[in-house]
Amino acid sequence: MPKVKSRFKTYKRKDTQKYIVTLSPLSGLPERICREWNRASFSNFPIPLAHLREPKSKSAADAAAETLIEYLKKKSNLSSKVQFEDVNVGDWFERFISLDNNPRSARLIAAGVPYSPDTIEGYRLRYHQFLESDPFMLIKMSETVESDALAFIGRLGLMANKCGEPISGTRTFELLSSFIRMAFHEYEEENHGWYNPFRNIKPPKKHTPIKRDAITEIELLSLFEPGVFADPLQKAICTAIFYAGFRRSEIFALRPENLDWNTPRIKITSAWKQFHSKDRKLGDPKWHKLRETIFPIQLQEAIKELWAAYGKHEYVFCRKDGSSPGPEYLRYWVPIWLKKAKINTEGRNLVPHSSRHSLASILEADGVPLRYIQKMLGHSNMETTLGYLHEPADTMNKISSKISQKAIAENEK
Question: For residue 399, is it within any domain?
Fold first, then answer.
């Protein structure tokens, strides 16, 4: 078949060196089909034409375009081809930063895991800070191609963080990439037959999380020496985070009815969402995981002491007037408690969340099975739990000493 240039146009992108095709109504195809193949990547070719997705020359690209036209004409369901939703990338993303008309929330609700307000707020902040002004947001979702997606990711990685450094390789970049891929995956779920331009683009490597240190069992005991705490509320809260493994948002959402004094166990059924915001609200725990944790005698006694001094209120950990501490309470007091207990913090990243690391490490050292530690801390997978385990500072020295003693004994034989 002689080539008629007006039926289609092919050209190579300068940035990716990939061929792009645009089909014209002069090809005999309906206008709606031509719109779907406007500036489309050859990687979008249907599966039966997959062998034509990587043309090596202009002539090969033209021949592939001709084959595509004939294929589309012969499709039996050509007249009933599904129309993709005609929406810009930016408009599609904006649906994910509100609970109303969110393309993903209904799907999660159906699975019994509704969106968390904290998740929505995180998406909203990242979208407005890094994505909103990018030209990629103006392209129609139905017209996005792999080269557009690659160029967008490249620009995104070069954007600066608060320190003026590129965000590529940071946790922020990883979270943005995850959000973008999730949004495009949802579009693909709702528009069957559409080719996701991120499908063949590898996600960034997981960013190494900030290392948090743990305190040893001996240091933990010194933390509860007389003179460390100024009042029974401080003692009770510190006991809860170091002996029961509470997250900060869970501590101040704990109600008296969650305490099972007979078993004894603590049922963690709620946590504060958007804890640092004035719009904070009560919801379910992180990852929507209701769980039980231990209720050790140390915490039982601390709570009894607290209630005897300040009374019993709606929440377990309250001041005398019934008010609960705010989000900055632990961030302020933990360093003070560590200093009063004379725990060496130099060169160690000891933060409120270190309490969970400390409890996990102490339990593991005492022989508690990892699966129980994982369940108690509410981790979704064992890999997270393993990241919480820290060998006590003198463990390696003990192991080294034992090996040396064994070697000496062998030589003396």
Answer: no
Q: Which residue segment(s) compose the domain that 52 sits in?
A: 5-80
pLDDT of residue 80: 42
Say yes or no: 117 and 145 in one domain.
yes
H, E, C per residue of the chain: CCCCHHHEEEEECCCCCCEEEEECHHHCCCHHHHHHCCCEEHHHCCHHHHHHCCCCCHHHHHHHHHHHHHHHHHCCCHHHCCCCCCCEHHHHHHHHHCCCCCCCHHHHHHCCCCCCHHHHHHHHHHHHHHHCCCHHHHCEHHHCCHHHHHHHHHHHHHCECCCCCECCCCHHHHHHHHHHHHHHHHHHHHCCCCCCCCCCCCCCCCCCCCCCCCCCHHHHHHHCCCCCCCCHHHHHHHHHHHHCCCCHHHHCCCCHHHEECCCCEEEECCEEECCCCCCCEEECCHHHCCEEEECCHHHHHHHHHHHHHHCCCCCCCCCCCCCCCCCCHHHHHHHHHHHHCCCCCCCCCCCCCHHHHHHHHHHHHCCCCHHHHHHHHCCCCHHHHHCCCCCCCCHHHHHHHHHHHHHHHHHHC
159 with 33, same domain?
Answer: no
Is 234 in the same domain as 344? yes
Residue 275 maps to which CATH number? 1.10.443.10
Is residue 1 over pLDDT 50?
Answer: no
Is 304 domain-assigned?
Answer: yes
pLDDT in tens, 244-301: 999 888 999 999 999 999 999 999 999 888 777 777 788 878 766 788 888 999 999 9
Is residue 402, in this structure, part of any structural domain at all? Answer: no
Does 75 lie in the same domain as 94? no
